[in-house]
Amino acid sequence: MxxxxxxxxxxxxxxxxxxxxxxxxxxxxTVLQMIVGPDAPDQTANVERLANESGLAARPLSPGQWLxxxxxxxxxxDMKHLLAALEPQASGIDQSHGRVRMRLEGPMAVKVLAKGxxxxxxxxxxxxxxxxxxxxxxxxxxxxxxxxxxxxIAVLRGLAEACWIDLAGMCEEFV
Amino acid sequence: xxxxxxxxxxxxxPKEEFTIKGAALARPAPDADPDSxxxxxxxxxxxxxxxxxxxxxxxxxxxxLIVCRDTVTHQVNTSQDAAAAKGQAx
Lengths: 175, 90
Prior knowledge:
With 175 residues, chain A is of the alpha+beta class. Chain A has helices at residues 44-53, 76-84, 109-114, 160-171, and strands spanning 16-17, 22-25, 30-36, 57-62, 65-70, 90-94, 99-105, 131-136, 139-147, 150-156. Helices cover 14% and strands 37% of the residues of chain B.
């Protein structure tokens, strides 16, 4: 049996820190994608309840789709329960291996992000607590605003390093 | 080409986030005559003015949209979810 060890995608990246900006990798905990069937009634309340019960945060991805995100890995048995919890109205897919998260915070965070994405980052258009799916450079990303100057970025694992390098470049003038 | 597209789910987004399929035409019945299918597959109008197309918001909500744009002014007049437009659940 070969020795297979799970390595975080951004394992060798140390946080980029200055007084204006901070870019740091987030732990690869739990990422669960929930998809509602085309004919199912609105599941927003159910998805949010499920997330609350399991200590995850439900973040909208698109109409009828959410990412349930947590910092800690979910045990296999709990995950099995989560995936089937809303059947047959909605199905869950474990994406813990597939999405990597990073955090961009500080007074210059908006200026940095504005170089890469065309989403309106004004607080009125994109208030804290809201999530959007967009492009950062050429990389599809899921962006969540935790606070006015605090963003979380989730990208596909294979693009995590490229996204990090892009963001680091965008941060350069403030480091 | 319109550079800002108003997505009904995501708001105003740049065209780079979208993939364009082409004219939004009604698909003929499977057993329709060959002429209807030939027309549907190969023949396109090239109107000066309003034009309805299928756009996929690939890097956003990943929904198919019907975008109506003006081929002269590049202005996007309307955009709506394609499934909703067909009367299905969005």
